[in-house]
Design a protein that fits this description.
It contains 7 helices and 7 strands; from the N terminus they run αβαββαβαβαβαβα. It is of the alpha/beta class. The strands form 2 sheets. The chain has a 4-stranded parallel β-sheet with strand order 5-4-6-7, with helices on both faces. Strands 1-2-3 form a 3-stranded parallel β-sheet, covered by helices on one side. α2 links the parallel β1 and β2. α1 (5-14) runs parallel beside α2, α3 runs parallel beside α4 (92-109) and α5 (132-144) packs parallel to α6.
Length: 188
């Protein structure tokens, strides 16, 4: 958990680790703090954007590529050509993934090339990675605005669960969502 991050880092330093990776966006502040506390240890935070310490770096996988493919699938599956996206925080990682998803949706809606069919991707910002109530509410609002497919960039299953309850499709994140929502998820 986020609150335990510095304590876990202290344990790792005590155990002799010289290079520590933290792998959730919510660990960024704690990792940056730990870099000051332990200047002899190197830290790499995944998906963050902080800079300014010689022993602190950031890195990110090319997750936008998977989001692009999810967008292609969503654009092809959407009947209304209005697709929703529940977005967590306004940070580079999330913007990259929304843009990739949007570009993919345009391709998916136009499988024979060109740009004849326009797809709207409506983004609902909830300003957190982990609030199931906000995620479910945002999904419901997107459905009420005509979205028949919803994707999300959050850490809970609230959006795909709400999508299923509303009878619309979703694309998954952070693991195979078929275990939670069955065939209502297009891809995870």
């Amino acid at each position: 958990a986020e609150a335990d991050c510095v304590d876990v880092i202290r344990e790792m330093v005590g155990a002799g680790f010289k290079l520590i990776f933290t792998t959730s966006f919510v660990f960024q502040d704690a990792t940056f703090q730990a870099a000051s506390l332990f200047p002899e240890i190197d830290f790499v935070h995944m998906t963050g954007f902080y800079t300014g310490k010689p022993n602190f770096a950031t890195a990110s996988g090319k997750l936008y590529q998977a989001r692009y493919i999810s967008g292609v699938i969503s654009g092809g599956a959407s009947v209304t050509k209005r697709i929703g996206y529940v977005a967590s925080l306004a940070v580079p990682e999330v913007y990259r993934n929304i843009n990739a998803y949007y570009l993919g949706a345009q391709v998916g809606a136009n499988p024979n090339g060109g740009n004849n069919v326009k797809v709207d991707v409506l983004v609902s910002w909830i300003d957190t990675f982990n609030d199931p109530v906000k995620e479910a509410y945002a999904t419901k609002v997107l459905q009420q605005l005509g979205c028949d497919v919803v994707s999300y960039h959050t850490d809970t299953k609230a959006s795909p669960l709400m999508s299923k309850a509303l009878g619309i499709m979703s694309t998954g994140s952070n693991g195979d969502q078929r275990l939670s929502v069955g065939e209502s998820v297009l891809t995870s």
